[in-house]
Amino acid sequence: MPTRTLSEHEQDLSHLCRQIREAKGLVCLKRNPSASHQTRQVNYKNGRTLLDLSAMRHVIGWEGDLLLCEPLVTMEELVAEALKRGRIPAIVPEFKEITVGGALQGVGLESSSHRKGQFNDICPFYEVILGNGERHLVSRDCEQELYHALPGSYGSLAITTLIAVETVPSFSHVELQGIHFHDRSACCDYLTTPQNIEFLEGFALGNERYLALQGNQCLAPQKATHIGRPMQKWFIQELLAGKTNSCVPLVDYLFRLDRGAFWMGRYLLHLRLLIAYLTCGNVADAKIQELLKSMEHSWPSRWFCALFGWLMTSKKLYQGFHQLDKKQAHRFFLIQDSFVNGKHAAEFVRHAEEEQKISPLWLCPVQKSKSPQLFSPQNIEGGPLLLNVGTYGLAHSAESLHHLEQTLALLKGRKALYSHSCYTREEFWKIYDETAYRKLRATYCAAGKFLSIEEKVF
User: Is the pTM of this model over 0.90?
Assistant: First the structure.
């Protein structure tokens, strides 16, 4: 894990401040698109001044139980560093290569979100650079407006350069217990009822099968089950097979959904698609759609895992996704995270299953925001627990995304903005407070220096 001192951090920071101060026109972050966990287009960076944050990938140190780190530290690196002190971050988004800065500015969540909220909710303060090149420290007590507005703003208000992450005591293993339902509403009700357990998530598995999967610490297991290894079946396959009760090593559990990227890796199971991915080759649009459709209910065999399991990490799968033309990708896939309150959860799950025809679905309960977070998808009516519904699969029509957004609006929900959107400007600003946002951009010198959020998410 790369570490460095605060003084070394300060040297890079001074350089970045000067670059922003002297930049002519709009500034965007320079990042290899294939490393991004966003699924929308990044052509808004064309012709902009690009700011290189590649050196900002170090852990700085500890302040009590807070781990201080730069924005490009990955979740895998963050966990490894925290474990050296017998601790783990209070929330660990499920993909190893998600960065701390990405989870903050883009919001991230996980199966501990029913207790802690989103990743930004475990970050009590962070250092930012404003559009005029000034450094500011924002926190729950200092410059609260900017602190609460940054999550979900995707770099449109300020650039984060140092983030404090809350940690909690670690333990060696997680004991998993599955609770099975054949009633959609009963499962959604269970997931959105506060539970005194460490981890909680759910899955809609198809054929009226619903699963609430809960986990608690297990200190001395008689028999541990490893998951997420290259030659093993994916975690979702074990759940589909009914193997829901086990005791797994903690780190295996935290990144249980990394291999296969939940289940999106199944769309590479056709040999022609796999070869195209490995060789960066092209397949005609109509043929891609036909091949993807044939893989919709497929799962990797043991021989496939043995030969190609090393390719199935979220990092490599995102690299493959970014090889697709983005218009093509958005036409073929529906990759969205949508937040609804408990009383509307079952209806939205029904829409995703029956009208969008997506299966499986990820169902993750999230503690409602206690603060006025401007762009956070958890800042909606309802609570104390909301339900995030992860729809990761094929779009069955050109209107799939638009229909999902319309249904979400009717149910007074919000979606995470990392993915493609069909909103018009008018629809977008009916959901979010444009007046407050424009005021913040003016106050903190973002206007004219950083792109506005709607220019990034459409």
Answer: yes
